[in-house]
Design the sequence.
């Protein structure tokens, strides 16, 4: 019997070798990420009160990702353990290893595809839909994505329907707290690439179904919020111009009629130099997110939904990454002036100044919220290893105390150091 097995194996070897050297249709890769980040918080996320002691901790992301690919099929499974150093006992019997990604992509040819499962939704500059990679856990959706792409156009239709568990009867009431923040979603996205100019444009329409039913009786009632807008980029020599506008209507989870908008404009100028020399870039931007001041039959505070807010509204995450004081939704007017410096192909740094104010006028309060200064440096220590560090300060106003809490007379600062180790440890073709 053993002789027969060996004979069959020898017969198969030529065909296996032929497949490996000619077709190589199948690819499998595996990557590992270890990303600890030490933080000193003395007024991050929310302002601190006078006399409150700063906090310090080290969080960590440990992620294992496996991906399979061939011409008509792509699959990815990624699992991660996230937490703070010291959070788990030395002898851990429960564990918190969760599946953060699990999706399959079917390629039907001629640019058509379907992607289904747990996945990140990253679109345009991540203002409305972003992967939130800064967060230790990231952000993921359970969704079906249908798409088409050619050299100049991309079309995506994203569909989602969420429930808390398998049920037999009882309707479709969905408890959003501690789960996905919406009951269902339908999103259409179109992107245009110009072949002749450096002009790109996107259109987005998102319809979100929010559960507003009765938790006690499980009676379901879905309200719908619509977000629509455009994102445009243009590059002219050493100038980069980025603009976006979004409008919201429908009803929110509090069953309020919504009429809100946001607009942003960013202009960057890169000083010309050879690729081997240090480069400087000056960036100026303004973001306006409408706020609610009361006295209207419509809710006018724009909700940036599931974007990567850390990327835009200050590194200390005072706005939209953390909540305003209950009862306040003043919106935000953010003016930014920044400098980017690439010292070499391994070292770059950013320095940004933000001036924040409310978009809506609040009774008895000035609009000015305060100023924030953010510094960050990145160093590619070696292949697959990056060291990053940052430091930020915030000087708030009395208005900041009211809408965010804390005491503006207290010194508010935040510092962090992170190491990102993310090698691809296995790659095979056959």
Sequence:
């Amino acid at each position: 019997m053993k002789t027969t097995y060996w004979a069959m194996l020898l017969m198969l070897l030529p065909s296996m070798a032929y497949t490996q050297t000619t077709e190589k249709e199948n690819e499998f890769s595996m990557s590992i990420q270890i990303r600890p980040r030490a933080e000193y918080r003395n007024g991050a996320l929310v302002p601190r009160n006078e006399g409150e002691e700063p906090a310090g901790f080290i969080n960590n992301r440990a992620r294992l990702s496996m991906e399979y690919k061939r011409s008509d099929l792509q699959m990815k499974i990624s699992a991660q353990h996230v937490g703070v150093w010291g959070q788990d006992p030395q002898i851990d019997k429960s564990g918190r290893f969760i599946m953060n990604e699990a999706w399959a992509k079917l390629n039907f040819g001629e640019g058509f595809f379907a992607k289904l499962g747990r996945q990140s939704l990253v679109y345009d500059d991540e203002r409305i839909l972003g992967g939130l990679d800064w967060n230790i856990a990231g952000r993921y959706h359970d969704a079906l994505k249908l798409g088409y792409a050619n050299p100049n156009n991309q079309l995506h239709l994203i569909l989602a329907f969420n429930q808390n568990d398998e049920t037999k009867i009882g309707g479709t009431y969905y408890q959003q707290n501690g789960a996905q923040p919406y009951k269902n979603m339908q999103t259409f996205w179109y992107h245009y690439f110009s072949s002749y100019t450096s002009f790109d444009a996107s259109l987005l329409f998102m319809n979100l179904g929010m559960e507003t039913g009765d938790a006690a009786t499980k009676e379901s009632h879905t309200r719908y919020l619509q977000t629509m807008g455009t994102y445009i980029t243009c590059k002219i020599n050493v100038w980069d111009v980025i603009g976006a506008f979004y409008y919201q209507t429908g009803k929110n989870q509090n069953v309020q009629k919504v009429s809100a908008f946001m607009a942003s404009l960013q202009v960057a100028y890169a000083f010309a130099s050879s690729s081997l020399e240090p480069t400087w870039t000056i960036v100026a931007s303004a973001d306006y997110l409408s706020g609610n001041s009361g006295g209207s039959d419509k809710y006018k505070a724009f909700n940036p939904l599931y974007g990567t807010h850390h990327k835009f509204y200050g590194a200390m995450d005072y706005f939209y990454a953390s909540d305003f004081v209950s009862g306040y939704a003043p919106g935000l007017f953010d003016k930014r002036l920044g400098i980017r410096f690439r010292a070499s192909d391994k070292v770059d740094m950013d320095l940004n100044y933000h001036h924040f104010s409310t978009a809506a006028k609040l009774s008895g309060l000035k609009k000015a919220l305060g100023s924030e200064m953010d510094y960050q440096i990145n160093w590619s220590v070696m292949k697959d290893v990056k060291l990053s560090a940052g430091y930020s300060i915030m000087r708030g106003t009395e208005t900041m105390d009211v809408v965010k809490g804390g005491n503006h007379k207290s010194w508010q600062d935040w510092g962090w150091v992170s190491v990102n180790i993310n090698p691809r440890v296995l790659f095979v073709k056959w």
About this structure: Residues 1-22 have pLDDT under 50 and may be disordered.
